Amino acid sequence: MKKLIAPISLALCAVVLLSGCVAAIGNRGTNPSNATLGQQLIDLQKAKESGAISDAEYQAQKAKLLENK
């Protein structure tokens, strides 16, 4: 009985660790470009208001977004 404890424990740990890998692989397809045009414009406005981008960059990106849709 004691001889089976180690292999069973090892197998159980492997299953638990590998199931996490499978879940992570399934989440790789998430693409932020799937956001709606409205959400992209809101995010762009927030970036401008926070000072992350300049007004010129904001206008250029906004025009690019509106042109593509």
| Number of discrete helical segments | 3
**What class would the helix/strand composition place it in?**
mainly alpha
**Oligomeric status:** single chain
What is the average per-residue confidence, as pLDDT, rounded to a whole number?
80
Largest sheet: none
Uncertain regions: pLDDT < 50 for 5+ in a row? none
Indicate the proportion of strand residues. Answer: under 5%
Q: End-to-end distance, in Å?
A: 66 Å
SSE succession:
HHH
Envelope shape: rod-shaped
Description of the molecule:
It is a single chain. The chain is an all-alpha fold. Helices cover 77% and strands 0% of the residues. The chain has helices spanning 2-26, 37-50, 55-68. The model has no long low-confidence stretch (mean pLDDT 80).
Question: Briefly, what is this?
Answer:
The protein has 69 residues and is mainly α.
How would you describe this structure in keywords?
single chain; about 70 residues; mainly alpha; 3 helices; about 0% strand
Ordered list of secondary-structure elements with their pairings:
Layout: H1 2-26, H2 37-50, H3 55-68
